[in-house]
Amino acid sequence: MSKFLKSAFVALSMLAVATPAMAGKFDLGREATAAEVAAWDIDIRPDGQGLPEGKGTVAQGEEIYAEKCASCHGDFGEGIDRWPVLAGGQDSLKSERPVKTIGSYWPYLSTVFDYVNRAMPFGEAQSLEPDEVYAITAYLLNLNDVVDSDFELSKQNFVKTRLPNEANFIADARPDTPVVAKGTEPCMKDCKPDAVKITGTARVLDVTPDEAKKQTGSLD
Amino acid sequence: MSDETGKSKTKTSRRRFLGAGLALGGAAIAGRAHASEGEAAILEKKDWNQYLGDGVDARPYGHPSEFEKSVVRRNVAWLTADPVSSVNFTPLHDLDGIITPNGLCFERHHAGIAEVDPAEHRLMINGLVDKQIVFTMADIMRFPRENRVYFLECAANSGMEWRGAQLNGCQFTHGMIHNVMYTGVPLKLLLEEAGVKTNAKWIMPEGADASAMTRSVPLAKAMEDCLVAFKMNGEALRPEQGYPLRLVVPGWEGNMWVKWLRRLEVGDEPWHHREETSKYTDLLENGKARRFTWEMDAKSVITNPSPQAPLLHKKGQTVITGIAWSGRGTIDRVDVSVDGGRNWMPARIDGPSLDKSMHRFYLDFDWDGSPLLLQSRAVDSTGYVQPTKNQLRAERGTNSIYHNNGIQTWHVKANGEVENVEVS
């Protein structure tokens, strides 16, 4: 590096250090205040980033859950009507009707805390105190047999509390069906050896019968 | 002015009176036009041939003809627990071309429609940036803009069909898609305004509604082609589509296109939030689940005929039409089969062929009146061939819910009725 470039580089670096909140190209917007960032930045990551100070026990969680969650999710996380099932379903993922719950499916506990904290109770989002969210999360762990009934969850022991299905998530492997070279014509004639037969017809003719409820998984 | 209004009222009353007379004496009047002389549609004068219609002030925001009342989004109530956290479907069988009208774009909310006052809306960028920054809507409107047509498809579109044909109508099997022109600011420009730190790898958009929707988006995608959009098809976003601001993530699953966008956090790791762990992960037959399956694979469907749009004209010339799209580029070709995928005919793509946008195809077809097993198959600009449903099931089983882009079969019966079927 020439002497000139080197000194120019140093000068630029110093400039960057001197003005960390340098205006952007268009000089639009204003710097957020610390209080504004704190008010909105509530997200939690699996490594614990974002967790607030706090703690809560299974027993405390059970009380809050009974009052604020059980009317939709059921006393034991079994789900009322089509509301999400939160507990159980262990060893069901390979079955014809998998039951995907916190205990059977979710990879990270941080997802439970984050979601309860940002979006629950349904219709009264972001009304829970951190200790309440810790307590509800502890109770959900207990409902899923991940912790004992005397467990207390806190910021300190959060990251080492793991969910059983964490290792079963894998990367996207698509495309997992044929790709042809660009410009190649796909099969156009006699692509199936025999005349094609109908093997099944739509089960739901008017789209809204009750029986269909039992035959399909919830989209929510 | 008052005089004008008075005149108008008089005319309306007269028209109503005449209308009532026609209804009462309908049989007698109809009798005047004998079938042998020709069609009543021509031989009889209609109200609209004779009397004046509404003036320009009657419909300051226009709406479709009253004869198009059935062209609406529809819900399938049993799919979700509550209409506030639910989905409805675009009536694809009633539409043509490639643009979805704003009022017919399917809706998916997790906490209902947020009614956001744009004057009180802010977009914050925080995390690994040089300057944590806040924009007003007025600020955002001062950035350079782009116009792009993109499809938005829910990853769960056709998700009810994994275990076999279930819903009778392309509105329900394929209607979680819309295609509009967005006007917005490249996300790259907003991120550069905040100054992204060198260790940043991900961004997390967050919505302002009561679900505070979040997803993790790789920084590379954010810098490549994402938009922060405020207009759709020329007008402000509809409230149900995220007014006043939504994220556009071209070619990727609709859940990532966060509506009512209020915050973008920049980070070095993904967040693994609910909508990318519990939901929008693809459970395979072996119990493993794929995550971060963002791209929407090439897909097509015949919209006419289809169960809600039967072939009513008996045999002869008919227009078979449908739509095709790919999250990896444009559509190179669409082929149509009338024998359940044994033999194929190239369809004609008409209208704009845009990157990550819906394409419209047609097959002008002389129907001999015999039953058909209609299919369409799209090939995209990467050479990806739309697979059969059985190919997908062989790879993934039937518990995936998401990313079902398999070839759809419609059984057209001799009487013109159409049914959703599975074939060998």
Question: How would you summarize what this structure contains?
Answer:
Chain A has 220 residues and is mainly alpha-helical. Chain A has 6 helices and 5 strands.
Keywords for this structure?
heterodimer, A: 220 residues, mainly alpha, Cytochrome Bc1 Complex, Chain D, domain 2, two-stranded antiparallel ribbon, 29% helix, extended, disordered C terminus, B: 424 residues, alpha+beta, Sulfite Oxidase, Chain A, domain 2, Immunoglobulin-like, 3 domains, 5-stranded mixed β-sheet, 5-stranded antiparallel β-sheet, 9 helices, 16% helix, globular
Question: What does the model show?
Answer:
Chain A is built from six helices and five strands. By secondary structure, chain A is mostly helical. Chain A has a domain at 52-169: Cytochrome Bc1 Complex, Chain D, domain 2. Chain A has a two-stranded antiparallel sheet with strand order 2-3. The longest helix of chain A is centred in the N-terminal third of the chain and has 16 residues, at 3-18. Chain B has three domains: 2-62, no CATH class; 83-290, Alpha-Beta Complex (Sulfite Oxidase, Chain A, domain 2); 299-421, Immunoglobulin-like, CATH 2.60.40.650. In chain B, 16% of the residues lie in helices and 28% in strands. The longest helix of chain B has 23 residues, at 2-24. The model of chain B is unreliable at 1-30 (pLDDT under 50). Strand 5 of chain A pairs antiparallel with strand 23 of chain B.
